[in-house]
Fold:
Amino acid sequence: MLYALLYPLADHIQAFNLFRYITFRSGGAVVTALLVSFACGQPLIAWLRSKQTNGQPIRLDGPAGHLMRKKGTPTMGGFLILLALTVATLLWADLANPYVWIVLLVTVGFGLIGFFDDYQKLTSASHRGLAGTTRIALEILVGAIASIAIYHFSPAPLANTLAVPFFKNLLIPLDGLFVPFAVFVVIGASNAVNLTDGLDGLAIVPTMIAAGCFALIAYLVGNSIFANYLEIHHVPGAGELTVFCGAMVGASLGFLWFNAPPAMVFMGDTGSLAIGGALGAISVVTKHELVLAIIGGLFVLEAVSVIVQVASFRITGRRVFRMAPLHHHFEQKGWEEPTIVIRFWIIASILAIAGLATLKLR
Structure:
Protein backbone atom coordinates (compact mmCIF):
# COMPACT_ATOMS: atom_id res chain seq x y z
CA MET A 1 0.00 0.00 0.00
CA LEU A 2 2.77 2.45 0.97
CA TYR A 3 4.68 1.45 -2.17
CA ALA A 4 1.76 2.40 -4.44
CA LEU A 5 1.04 5.62 -2.53
CA LEU A 6 4.51 7.01 -1.89
CA TYR A 7 6.90 5.70 -4.54
CA PRO A 8 5.17 7.65 -7.37
CA LEU A 9 5.99 10.81 -5.39
CA ALA A 10 9.73 10.11 -5.57
CA ASP A 11 10.14 12.61 -8.43
CA HIS A 12 9.04 15.37 -6.06
CA ILE A 13 10.35 14.10 -2.71
CA GLN A 14 13.59 12.19 -3.11
CA ALA A 15 13.26 10.37 0.22
CA PHE A 16 10.33 8.39 -1.19
CA ASN A 17 12.74 6.75 -3.61
CA LEU A 18 13.58 4.39 -0.73
CA PHE A 19 10.28 2.62 -1.32
CA ARG A 20 11.57 1.18 -4.58
CA TYR A 21 13.99 -0.99 -2.61
CA ILE A 22 12.73 -4.35 -1.41
CA THR A 23 15.32 -4.37 1.35
CA PHE A 24 14.00 -1.09 2.81
CA ARG A 25 10.40 -2.23 2.69
CA SER A 26 11.32 -5.60 4.19
CA GLY A 27 12.94 -3.83 7.12
CA GLY A 28 9.82 -1.73 7.49
CA ALA A 29 7.70 -4.89 7.50
CA VAL A 30 9.83 -6.43 10.27
CA VAL A 31 9.48 -3.36 12.49
CA THR A 32 5.77 -2.90 11.73
CA ALA A 33 4.90 -6.53 12.51
CA LEU A 34 6.90 -6.35 15.73
CA LEU A 35 5.16 -3.14 16.86
CA VAL A 36 1.71 -4.52 16.01
CA SER A 37 2.51 -7.63 18.07
CA PHE A 38 3.63 -5.58 21.06
CA ALA A 39 0.64 -3.22 20.82
CA CYS A 40 -2.01 -5.92 20.43
CA GLY A 41 -0.48 -8.80 22.38
CA GLN A 42 -1.64 -8.05 25.91
CA PRO A 43 -5.20 -6.97 24.99
CA LEU A 44 -5.62 -10.03 22.75
CA ILE A 45 -4.37 -12.43 25.43
CA ALA A 46 -6.68 -10.83 28.01
CA TRP A 47 -9.62 -11.22 25.63
CA LEU A 48 -8.74 -14.86 24.91
CA ARG A 49 -8.51 -15.56 28.65
CA SER A 50 -11.97 -14.07 29.17
CA LYS A 51 -13.43 -16.32 26.47
CA GLN A 52 -11.52 -19.50 27.37
CA THR A 53 -12.23 -20.36 30.98
CA ASN A 54 -10.09 -23.48 31.06
CA GLY A 55 -7.65 -22.57 28.30
CA GLN A 56 -6.42 -25.03 25.70
CA PRO A 57 -7.50 -28.64 26.37
CA ILE A 58 -4.47 -30.70 27.44
CA ARG A 59 -4.05 -34.28 26.19
CA LEU A 60 -4.54 -36.74 29.05
CA ASP A 61 -2.17 -39.19 27.36
CA GLY A 62 0.54 -36.54 27.00
CA PRO A 63 3.42 -35.80 29.36
CA ALA A 64 2.12 -35.64 32.92
CA GLY A 65 3.79 -32.32 33.66
CA HIS A 66 1.73 -30.55 31.01
CA LEU A 67 -1.45 -30.98 33.06
CA MET A 68 0.11 -28.91 35.84
CA ARG A 69 2.24 -26.40 33.93
CA LYS A 70 0.08 -25.62 30.92
CA LYS A 71 -3.49 -25.96 32.17
CA GLY A 72 -5.47 -22.74 31.79
CA THR A 73 -3.21 -21.20 29.15
CA PRO A 74 -5.34 -19.75 26.34
CA THR A 75 -4.89 -20.84 22.74
CA MET A 76 -5.60 -19.19 19.37
CA GLY A 77 -2.64 -16.85 19.89
CA GLY A 78 -1.97 -17.38 16.20
CA PHE A 79 -4.43 -14.50 15.71
CA LEU A 80 -1.62 -12.21 16.84
CA ILE A 81 0.77 -13.64 14.25
CA LEU A 82 -1.82 -13.39 11.47
CA LEU A 83 -2.76 -9.83 12.42
CA ALA A 84 0.82 -8.55 12.58
CA LEU A 85 1.88 -10.46 9.46
CA THR A 86 -1.09 -9.34 7.37
CA VAL A 87 -0.98 -5.68 8.41
CA ALA A 88 2.77 -5.41 7.78
CA THR A 89 2.52 -7.14 4.41
CA LEU A 90 -0.38 -5.00 3.21
CA LEU A 91 1.44 -1.84 4.27
CA TRP A 92 4.87 -2.54 2.82
CA ALA A 93 4.50 -4.99 -0.09
CA ASP A 94 3.75 -4.15 -3.70
CA LEU A 95 0.13 -5.26 -3.83
CA ALA A 96 0.22 -5.49 -7.61
CA ASN A 97 2.42 -8.57 -7.24
CA PRO A 98 0.32 -11.77 -7.59
CA TYR A 99 2.69 -13.89 -5.48
CA VAL A 100 2.00 -11.71 -2.44
CA TRP A 101 -1.73 -12.37 -2.70
CA ILE A 102 -1.24 -16.10 -3.31
CA VAL A 103 0.86 -16.51 -0.17
CA LEU A 104 -1.56 -14.34 1.82
CA LEU A 105 -4.41 -16.58 0.57
CA VAL A 106 -2.63 -19.65 1.89
CA THR A 107 -1.79 -17.95 5.19
CA VAL A 108 -5.30 -16.71 5.89
CA GLY A 109 -6.95 -19.84 4.47
CA PHE A 110 -4.95 -22.22 6.62
CA GLY A 111 -5.37 -19.84 9.55
CA LEU A 112 -9.16 -20.13 9.21
CA ILE A 113 -8.93 -23.92 9.07
CA GLY A 114 -6.81 -23.80 12.21
CA PHE A 115 -9.32 -21.46 13.87
CA PHE A 116 -12.21 -23.87 13.29
CA ASP A 117 -10.02 -26.71 14.57
CA ASP A 118 -9.16 -24.76 17.75
CA TYR A 119 -12.78 -23.69 18.19
CA GLN A 120 -13.94 -27.28 17.96
CA LYS A 121 -11.42 -28.29 20.62
CA LEU A 122 -12.54 -25.52 22.97
CA THR A 123 -16.27 -26.09 22.56
CA SER A 124 -15.92 -29.85 23.02
CA ALA A 125 -13.34 -29.49 25.81
CA SER A 126 -11.21 -32.06 24.00
CA HIS A 127 -7.85 -32.09 22.24
CA ARG A 128 -9.63 -33.49 19.17
CA GLY A 129 -10.64 -30.79 16.73
CA LEU A 130 -12.11 -31.04 13.24
CA ALA A 131 -12.54 -34.49 11.77
CA GLY A 132 -9.37 -35.52 9.99
CA THR A 133 -11.04 -35.94 6.61
CA THR A 134 -12.74 -32.54 6.85
CA ARG A 135 -9.51 -30.79 7.79
CA ILE A 136 -7.48 -32.44 5.03
CA ALA A 137 -10.19 -31.73 2.45
CA LEU A 138 -10.17 -28.02 3.35
CA GLU A 139 -6.36 -27.94 3.25
CA ILE A 140 -6.34 -29.60 -0.18
CA LEU A 141 -8.87 -27.05 -1.45
CA VAL A 142 -6.82 -24.04 -0.32
CA GLY A 143 -3.56 -25.64 -1.43
CA ALA A 144 -4.94 -26.53 -4.86
CA ILE A 145 -6.23 -23.00 -5.51
CA ALA A 146 -2.85 -21.55 -4.55
CA SER A 147 -0.90 -24.14 -6.56
CA ILE A 148 -2.93 -23.52 -9.71
CA ALA A 149 -2.38 -19.79 -9.29
CA ILE A 150 1.38 -20.29 -8.85
CA TYR A 151 1.44 -22.44 -11.98
CA HIS A 152 -0.42 -19.73 -13.89
CA PHE A 153 1.92 -16.90 -12.90
CA SER A 154 5.24 -18.79 -12.95
CA PRO A 155 7.43 -18.39 -16.06
CA ALA A 156 8.21 -21.26 -18.40
CA PRO A 157 9.92 -23.66 -17.99
CA LEU A 158 9.66 -23.31 -14.21
CA ALA A 159 5.87 -23.46 -14.05
CA ASN A 160 5.59 -27.25 -13.82
CA THR A 161 9.09 -28.40 -12.92
CA LEU A 162 11.05 -29.27 -9.80
CA ALA A 163 14.45 -27.66 -9.23
CA VAL A 164 17.06 -29.85 -7.55
CA PRO A 165 19.58 -28.26 -5.15
CA PHE A 166 23.32 -28.70 -5.83
CA PHE A 167 22.66 -28.91 -9.60
CA LYS A 168 22.84 -25.78 -11.75
CA ASN A 169 20.40 -26.47 -14.54
CA LEU A 170 18.58 -29.62 -13.49
CA LEU A 171 14.81 -29.30 -13.73
CA ILE A 172 12.65 -32.38 -13.31
CA PRO A 173 9.46 -32.06 -15.39
CA LEU A 174 6.35 -32.75 -13.32
CA ASP A 175 3.78 -31.80 -15.96
CA GLY A 176 0.35 -32.73 -14.63
CA LEU A 177 1.82 -33.78 -11.29
CA PHE A 178 2.96 -30.26 -10.44
CA VAL A 179 -0.27 -29.19 -8.73
CA PRO A 180 -0.56 -32.37 -6.57
CA PHE A 181 3.12 -32.02 -5.67
CA ALA A 182 2.73 -28.35 -4.74
CA VAL A 183 -0.36 -29.16 -2.66
CA PHE A 184 1.65 -31.87 -0.88
CA VAL A 185 4.44 -29.39 -0.09
CA VAL A 186 2.05 -26.77 1.29
CA ILE A 187 0.01 -29.23 3.36
CA GLY A 188 3.11 -31.11 4.49
CA ALA A 189 4.83 -27.93 5.68
CA SER A 190 1.67 -26.74 7.42
CA ASN A 191 1.11 -29.93 9.37
CA ALA A 192 4.81 -30.40 10.14
CA VAL A 193 4.89 -27.00 11.89
CA ASN A 194 1.64 -27.92 13.63
CA LEU A 195 3.17 -31.12 15.03
CA THR A 196 6.24 -29.21 16.22
CA ASP A 197 4.13 -26.75 18.18
CA GLY A 198 4.05 -28.70 21.43
CA LEU A 199 6.35 -26.83 23.83
CA ASP A 200 6.65 -23.16 24.74
CA GLY A 201 8.60 -21.37 22.00
CA LEU A 202 9.52 -24.58 20.21
CA ALA A 203 7.85 -23.90 16.85
CA ILE A 204 8.04 -20.11 16.59
CA VAL A 205 11.84 -19.71 16.60
CA PRO A 206 12.50 -22.32 13.86
CA THR A 207 9.69 -20.62 11.92
CA MET A 208 11.45 -17.28 12.31
CA ILE A 209 14.74 -18.85 11.20
CA ALA A 210 13.11 -20.43 8.14
CA ALA A 211 11.35 -17.16 7.27
CA GLY A 212 14.65 -15.30 7.46
CA CYS A 213 16.30 -17.85 5.17
CA PHE A 214 13.50 -17.64 2.63
CA ALA A 215 13.62 -13.86 2.76
CA LEU A 216 17.16 -14.16 1.42
CA ILE A 217 16.21 -16.88 -1.06
CA ALA A 218 13.23 -14.90 -2.40
CA TYR A 219 15.38 -11.79 -2.79
CA LEU A 220 18.11 -13.67 -4.68
CA VAL A 221 15.69 -15.64 -6.86
CA GLY A 222 13.78 -12.48 -7.75
CA ASN A 223 16.91 -10.56 -8.72
CA SER A 224 18.20 -11.60 -12.14
CA ILE A 225 21.77 -10.43 -11.45
CA PHE A 226 22.15 -12.41 -8.23
CA ALA A 227 20.28 -15.39 -9.67
CA ASN A 228 22.60 -15.55 -12.67
CA TYR A 229 25.69 -15.14 -10.49
CA LEU A 230 24.63 -17.96 -8.16
CA GLU A 231 23.26 -19.99 -11.09
CA ILE A 232 19.89 -20.45 -9.46
CA HIS A 233 16.60 -20.21 -11.31
CA HIS A 234 15.31 -16.66 -11.69
CA VAL A 235 11.62 -16.15 -10.88
CA PRO A 236 10.55 -12.61 -11.83
CA GLY A 237 8.44 -11.05 -9.10
CA ALA A 238 9.39 -13.56 -6.41
CA GLY A 239 11.60 -10.97 -4.73
CA GLU A 240 8.52 -9.21 -3.37
CA LEU A 241 8.01 -12.18 -1.03
CA THR A 242 11.07 -10.89 0.84
CA VAL A 243 8.72 -8.30 2.33
CA PHE A 244 6.27 -11.02 3.39
CA CYS A 245 9.08 -13.05 4.95
CA GLY A 246 10.28 -9.95 6.78
CA ALA A 247 6.79 -9.46 8.16
CA MET A 248 6.80 -13.09 9.31
CA VAL A 249 10.12 -12.59 11.10
CA GLY A 250 8.75 -9.54 12.90
CA ALA A 251 5.47 -11.25 13.77
CA SER A 252 7.37 -14.30 15.06
CA LEU A 253 9.61 -12.14 17.25
CA GLY A 254 6.58 -10.35 18.65
CA PHE A 255 4.74 -13.58 19.36
CA LEU A 256 7.82 -15.09 21.02
CA TRP A 257 7.66 -12.27 23.57
CA PHE A 258 4.40 -13.75 24.85
CA ASN A 259 5.10 -17.42 24.00
CA ALA A 260 8.49 -17.66 25.74
CA PRO A 261 8.50 -20.12 28.66
CA PRO A 262 6.28 -20.06 30.60
CA ALA A 263 3.93 -19.19 27.75
CA MET A 264 1.20 -16.63 28.30
CA VAL A 265 -0.59 -17.93 25.18
CA PHE A 266 -0.34 -20.81 22.71
CA MET A 267 -0.46 -20.16 18.97
CA GLY A 268 -2.77 -23.12 18.43
CA ASP A 269 -3.63 -24.51 15.03
CA THR A 270 -4.71 -20.99 14.07
CA GLY A 271 -1.07 -19.99 13.95
CA SER A 272 0.86 -23.16 13.25
CA LEU A 273 -1.15 -24.24 10.20
CA ALA A 274 -1.01 -20.72 8.77
CA ILE A 275 2.73 -20.10 9.07
CA GLY A 276 3.60 -23.62 7.94
CA GLY A 277 1.40 -23.28 4.88
CA ALA A 278 2.96 -19.90 4.10
CA LEU A 279 6.47 -21.35 4.18
CA GLY A 280 5.37 -24.17 1.89
CA ALA A 281 3.80 -21.76 -0.61
CA ILE A 282 6.90 -19.53 -0.63
CA SER A 283 9.11 -22.54 -1.34
CA VAL A 284 6.92 -23.48 -4.32
CA VAL A 285 7.00 -19.96 -5.75
CA THR A 286 10.79 -19.68 -5.39
CA LYS A 287 11.38 -23.23 -6.73
CA HIS A 288 13.12 -24.26 -3.50
CA GLU A 289 10.73 -26.94 -2.29
CA LEU A 290 13.52 -29.42 -1.58
CA VAL A 291 15.57 -26.76 0.18
CA LEU A 292 12.61 -26.17 2.51
CA ALA A 293 12.98 -29.80 3.62
CA ILE A 294 16.56 -28.94 4.68
CA ILE A 295 15.96 -25.50 6.21
CA GLY A 296 12.81 -26.77 7.90
CA GLY A 297 14.45 -30.09 8.70
CA LEU A 298 13.37 -29.87 12.34
CA PHE A 299 9.73 -29.78 11.24
CA VAL A 300 10.42 -32.76 8.97
CA LEU A 301 11.96 -34.73 11.85
CA GLU A 302 8.94 -34.06 14.04
CA ALA A 303 6.52 -35.14 11.32
CA VAL A 304 8.54 -38.24 10.43
CA SER A 305 8.66 -39.27 14.10
CA VAL A 306 4.86 -39.35 14.16
CA ILE A 307 4.65 -41.29 10.88
CA VAL A 308 7.23 -43.84 12.06
CA GLN A 309 5.54 -44.21 15.45
CA VAL A 310 2.10 -44.82 13.97
CA ALA A 311 3.38 -47.17 11.25
CA SER A 312 5.49 -49.19 13.69
CA PHE A 313 2.65 -49.59 16.18
CA ARG A 314 0.15 -50.66 13.52
CA ILE A 315 2.54 -53.12 11.87
CA THR A 316 4.44 -54.56 14.84
CA GLY A 317 2.47 -53.40 17.86
CA ARG A 318 5.62 -51.70 19.19
CA ARG A 319 6.58 -48.06 19.54
CA VAL A 320 9.89 -46.69 18.27
CA PHE A 321 9.74 -43.60 20.50
CA ARG A 322 8.51 -43.29 24.06
CA MET A 323 6.06 -40.73 22.73
CA ALA A 324 5.60 -38.83 19.48
CA PRO A 325 6.18 -36.17 18.21
CA LEU A 326 9.91 -36.28 18.87
CA HIS A 327 10.01 -33.52 21.51
CA HIS A 328 7.70 -35.58 23.75
CA HIS A 329 10.12 -38.53 23.46
CA PHE A 330 12.85 -36.43 25.08
CA GLU A 331 10.41 -35.19 27.72
CA GLN A 332 9.68 -38.79 28.64
CA LYS A 333 13.44 -39.41 28.88
CA GLY A 334 13.62 -36.75 31.58
CA TRP A 335 14.90 -33.74 29.62
CA GLU A 336 13.64 -30.41 30.96
CA GLU A 337 11.41 -28.42 28.60
CA PRO A 338 13.82 -25.44 28.20
CA THR A 339 16.65 -27.88 27.39
CA ILE A 340 14.62 -29.52 24.62
CA VAL A 341 13.49 -26.20 23.19
CA ILE A 342 16.94 -24.59 23.09
CA ARG A 343 18.63 -27.69 21.67
CA PHE A 344 15.98 -27.94 18.97
CA TRP A 345 16.59 -24.26 18.18
CA ILE A 346 20.27 -25.08 17.73
CA ILE A 347 19.40 -27.95 15.38
CA ALA A 348 17.10 -25.64 13.40
CA SER A 349 19.91 -23.09 13.06
CA ILE A 350 22.39 -25.71 11.81
CA LEU A 351 19.89 -27.02 9.27
CA ALA A 352 19.17 -23.48 8.09
CA ILE A 353 22.88 -22.92 7.42
CA ALA A 354 23.00 -26.21 5.51
CA GLY A 355 19.99 -25.17 3.45
CA LEU A 356 21.48 -21.79 2.58
CA ALA A 357 24.71 -23.53 1.54
CA THR A 358 22.81 -25.08 -1.39
CA LEU A 359 22.68 -21.60 -2.96
CA LYS A 360 26.42 -21.68 -3.59
CA LEU A 361 27.34 -25.37 -3.66
CA ARG A 362 26.42 -26.21 -7.23
